[in-house]
Request: fold
Amino acid sequence: MSELQRIFTVSVQAATADVERLRARLGSSVRVLTAPTAEARRVVEALGREPVPEVLLAPVRFPDVDRGHRLDELVRRHAVEDRYRDLVVVADPATLTLLLRVLAPDQLPEAGPVTEVGLPRSPRPVPLGKAAAGGVGLAVVAGVLSPVLVPWVLPALVALAGLVLLLVPGRRHLGQALLIATAVSVVVTLMTIAGSARFPGAW
Reply:
């Protein structure tokens, strides 16, 4: 299942209250593309984020036929550099209208100076190496704590946390990693038990 990378377009006519509401919605990782104008600077300062000025976002009186496509390419280029951050585009209403017609023609724009659209992206990859290493570590810790804690309790708690994270958008990859770590820990524990049964003097 594909997820969506959030793209916010903000008109230079946005009121302070609109910008404050957007600021509260943004994630921890954000890139702000802005037209190099005084009006856009006001909005960017209200957002409190480091801007990336783009000349192409500057207002033009007579736009070229392909201006919408060039705006789309600009935004997508910044988007693909990090598909897991929010992207904010600050420009005049005419520029944003052209951008949205090409960027997200199948998504209805929101009423008001701030519009959110989404670009499809694949889910975050599961860190298999770290999950496997974590599973080995989990088996070791469970073994060390076995005199005071039933061995299956710790893996069960980790598995439960993994199942919970599977339900959280943007955290599914962590949930999958925890479930893999749990499976690895079970395999390591079973192999340890089998080995000690075959070679009791070696353990």
Notes: The CA atoms of residues 142 and 148 lie 10 Å apart. The chain is about 50% helix and 15% strand. The first strand starts at residue 3 and ends at 11. The radius of gyration is 25 Å.
